Amino acid sequence: MAGATQRAKVRRFRDGTGIGGRASLAVEEPLEIRVDGAVVATTMRTPGHDFDLALGFAITDGGVSPDRVGGMSYCGVDAGEVVATPTAADLAGPYSGDFNVVNVATRDGGGVTVARNRQTVVTSACGVCGSDVVADLRERAGSVAEDPLTVDADVIASIPPAARAAQPGFEATGGMHAAAAFAADGTLLALREDVGRHNAVDKVVGWAATTGRLPMAGTILFTSGRVAFEIVAKAAVAGIPMIVAVSAPTTLAVELAQEVGLTLVGFARDGDFTAYAATHRIRD
């Protein structure tokens, strides 16, 4: 499996003149996610933190509670056999062999609690929302209205530049999204990068699950892209009471944030931002 970035030959043009050179590209490869051996999704992702991604997806999209998870492993594509249980050093990559299939094993062997057809590839450009998915995620997105989190406006303004400084993949390629967990005082807790913004969020949720931080009460989720319905739903499932994004939310995202009492902040750039829902958590 490749690392997160890869060098490529390019020809750059300035003022009509071409010059040969090299550039870094964001790596995009398929990851097949299985729960108890059954395929639940194949998503196009940037390699790295694959266990976080698989676990986060199983929780936010498959309804698997963290206490049911017994372990995770990379598997061979054809035979399905476990070929590695990587150490922390191994997870930094690159790997030898095939590491594009991850199995999440539950203690009870019961698989996902939300059964959907996920045999098609989920692209890095979008999530997996159809009308049935929207209805299910809306039903499973728990209320965070009672979370007592309050955050100073200047802390919110500080989050995008703090996240930007911790994105080596974007720095190298200009082609990766980021999602991050921040504490109420603006402390960066974890950041994950991926070509897909939904994948980056799932990686953060998976990190929280493996470190015993679910539900993520009192936590701020940063995302570098626009905020669609599914991002808000994933945050609510994880118990996150606030999202800060550098881009705009959609109508369904704002509606769901209002329904579940989640503070939704968009256009957080250059010290300014716009709050769309549950604005009472923001202190002037």
TrEMBL record:
ATP-binding keyword on record: no
Residues annotated as the enzyme's active site: C126 (cysteine persulfide intermediate)
Transcription regulation recorded as keyword: no
A GO molecular-function descriptor: sulfur carrier activity
Keywords: Cytoplasm, Molybdenum cofactor biosynthesis
Biological process annotations from GO: Mo-molybdopterin cofactor biosynthetic process
Transmembrane parts of this sequence: none
Protein name: Sulfur carrier protein FdhD
